[in-house]
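does this look right to u?? adenosine-5'-triphosphate version
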Amino acid sequence: MPIIEARALSKTFRVADKRPGLGGTLRHFLRRRYRDVAAVREVSFAITPGEVVGFLGPNGAGKTTTLKMLTGLIEPSGGRVAVAGCVPFRRQERFLQQITLVMGNRQQLIWDLPALDSFRVNAAVYGIPDRVAERRIAQLAEMLELGEELRRPVRKLSLGQRMKAELLAALLHEPAVLFLDEPTLGLDVNAQARVRDFLADYNRRTGATVLLTSHYMGDITALCRRVLLIHEGQLFHDGSLERLTQELAPHREVRLELQDLQPAGTFEAYGVVESHQGHQVRLRIPREQLTERVAALLGRFAVVDLEVADPPIEQLIGELFRREAAA
Ligand SMILES: Nc1ncnc2c1ncn2[C@@H]1O[C@H](COP(=O)(O)OP(=O)(O)OP(=O)(O)O)[C@@H](O)[C@H]1O
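got this back:
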């Protein structure tokens, strides 16, 4: 039984079609014109309990709008959606008790108070008894490596500490479903890694379901076996990141470090030469010919180092959408 299910889920926003300047404002005032923006178009997917799913797509693809429909913040224009057996937009208590939404660019903690005070407010809102709340705060604080910081006003915390405190606040009611929109936004590499480790650990310990958007591919590769890729409001891919990489890049990249210099043109027979400078060579080789070509390279040249990699997924997705836009 899926815990999140979307069927032909759609959202169209009606936006004012106003020309710039005073003239435009006056004209709009006298004769209002609107146009429809189809932010999400017939998106369908099902997520089973315990899955950690990445939600990818370029800016404006419709990720946040989808998350808002899944959490009941906005009403779908079409289709059906169910989360934890509830219709999100009804915002029933039973639903709110089972979900949480964390947005990297918004905060729910009270700026001038210590995070601990905000946690107590949250605990009261969710009807969590004091002793239970204290125990959960202690447990989550340990997992998140938070301590004395929680007694300082939130405004005095670093971005990374604040984000971890936000996560703690969002998880206090032990939701079964976590919707995370850019949870590592703006964090430095170390803080990103800590938030990531925490999420992986939390999922392992509690079996919570996670749907996560991130511009940092590192988050997605570290956490998600499955990814949904959305583009211009439509679902483009639903499956493993590996399969997405294979679909987008039917080749792999081979990087060689040679012992001896070789003349230009030497490697054209082995693949598409992306660069050849001094002892370093980068080749694109079709996946199905990889073993045979690498064996041939190793047989023919003195190779000091060899690395086989997939092209970066950001690059592949970027290329794909540029190709689509040009078509
Ligand atoms: N309240 C709104 N009113 C009108 N249009 C909106 C509204 N919210 C979103 N849109 C439009 O819907 C489309 C999808 O936006 P959305 O914020 O869901 O994208 P996103 O994938 O989350 O992008 P990003 O990665 O930049 O956050 C965009 O064209 C956006 O301008």
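The pocket of adenosine-5'-triphosphate is lined by residues 13, 15, 37, 39, 57, 59-65 (CB under 6 Å). idk if thats expected tbh
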